[in-house]
Design goal:
- The protein is α+β, with helices and mostly antiparallel strands and 202 residues long.
- The protein folds into two domains: 2-52, no CATH class; 60-199, Nucleoside Triphosphate Pyrophosphohydrolase (Alpha-Beta Complex), CATH 3.90.79.
- The protein contains four helices and eleven strands, in the order βββαβββββαβββαα.
- It has helices at residues 49-52, 106-118, 171-179, 187-199, and strands at residues 2-10, 18-28, 31-41, 60-62, 65-68, 75-84, 89-93, 96-98, 120-133, 142-153, 164-170.
- The strands form two sheets. Strands 4, 5, 6, 7, 8, 9, 10 and 11 form an eight-stranded mixed beta sheet that branches. A three-stranded antiparallel beta sheet has the order 1-2-3, with no helix packed on it.
- A hairpin with a 2-residue loop joins strand 2 (18-28) and strand 3 (31-41).
- The longest helix has 13 residues, at 106-118.
- It is elongated, with a radius of gyration of 20 Å.
Length: 202
Amino acid sequence: MKWTLKEVIKETEHPFLNFYTLVYDVEDENGHHCYRYFAASRHDTDSLLAKTGDTSRPDGVLIPLYYVDPKTKKTSFLLTKQFRPAVGKYVTSMAAGLLDPEDADIAECVKREAKEEAGALVDDIELLCPAAPTSSGLSDELDAVCLARIVGFEQASLEAFEDIKSSLKTRDEVVEIMKNPEYFIPLNIRMILLYLLERFPR
């Protein structure tokens, strides 16, 4: 089949996230068909991924953070607990944030968001995953994943209505949290945690 975007209809007016109707012409062996698809996006009409195809810059970044105790040399991981209105409950996750237009690169966003959300000062930033879709059936949002080492802490500076608590968890505690159904953990966070457990063995 051949898909050609013919029209974009912006259905809402919100400063952070909007709902769009994407009108495609779909050509197959039976001819042409009009197909209307619905998507959410942080972008304006002209910069929707369906129009630009530009995957060079992520919208946001997930930031798995680890801390190596200087005395014991044991590694802990920073987990967050944040209320997410869309699911109506607290979610176990990790530091994350959106790239600002003025961010020179992903590393700049990593340092700012780790500090703002968790009060974590970081170094040794490593790109684990470039810009990739988080839920391509629903949104055109692209996220990167960057691993970073915590080198110190200071006071977090959360924005209004950011209900986030952060804490360091040992490797064994992370294993138990992942088994416990009382913790609501997004799929992508589970996958990253599994990676961290392999990356940082006992």
